[in-house]
Amino acid sequence: MIREAVITREHIHLRATAEKGGFFDRLGEIYGEMDRVYDEVASLYGFSCTGCVDNCCQTRFYHHTAIEYAYLVLCFTGLPRDLRTECMDRALAYNLEMKRVHAENGSFFRMCPLNENGLCLLYSSRPMICRLHGIPHELAPPGRAKTYGAGCGAFDAHCGKGVYHPFDRTPFYTAMADLERRFKEAAGISGKVRMTVAEMLASVSEHTP
Ligand code: SF4
Questions:
Q1: What is the pLDDT of residues 122-146, one digit of tens each?
Q2: 172 phi/psi in degrees, rounded to 5
Q3: What is the distance in A from the centroid of ligand 1 to the CA of 199?
Q4: Which pLDDT belongs to residue 2?
């Protein structure tokens, strides 16, 4: 069965708004800065993510920005058609399985539909949390106490629990929140976004005979 990507009016509106306002350009800048700082800190540990058994792409990440949703959909529709079809099949299966597991209050682990043979098909366009995951970090939201987060299983296995090299996610979250606020304002949308990559892909999926 062929599965065709269908761009809805919502997708078109979000894309047009982002392009007109330069919001995708700003997102690219923020992503670039995240990668630069992440690589810098990871290198202090001698840690590099090359894929592992405990692949974080099997973690059910939720993404919370409309700008990242719009960007991922844009990049996804640029993939070759056969790859898109495979991804959309996997996305629909992912969503069904997630629904079933949630109904049973079980733990959900399943490979992200964008992951093909251990590699992300949209690696350079992957969302923020995919970029920041892996090394220990800190977060200092305004008016709230600083919190610390652990590294992933592969990090612990390779680097142990030794000295902490500061990796502050706060400036990235702040920049993303500002971008998201301005983007939503320009697009005339409100409400919170909470989507997995599978749900984003499913939003452009449709059966055709
Ligand atoms: S978007 Fe890419 S990096 Fe993120 S979970 Fe999916 S495959 Fe992994």
A1: 999 999 999 999 999 999 988 899 9
A2: -75, -45
A3: 13
A4: 56
Name the residue of 197, 200, 201 to mutate for ligand 1: max ligand atoms within 8 A of Cβ.
Answer: 197
Give distance in angstroms: CA of 143 to centre of ligand 1: 32
Burial of 39 (0-12, 13-18, 19+ CB in 10 A): exposed
| Ligand 1 center to 91 CA (angstroms) | 12
Residue minimizing CA distance to atom 4 of ligand 1: 130
Which atom from ligand 1 is nearest to the alpha carbon of 72? Answer: 1
With a Cβ cut-off of 6 Å, ligand 1 is lined by 57, 112, 114-115, 120, 126, 130, 197
Q: How many CA atoms lie within 13 A of 151 on its CB side?
A: 25
- Confidence (pTM): 0.92
Mean of the pLDDT values across residues 60-89?
A: 94
Residue 96 is which amino acid? L
Q: How far apart are alpha carbons 61 and 49 in whole angstroms?
A: 17
Segment 107-120 shows an average pLDDT of: 91
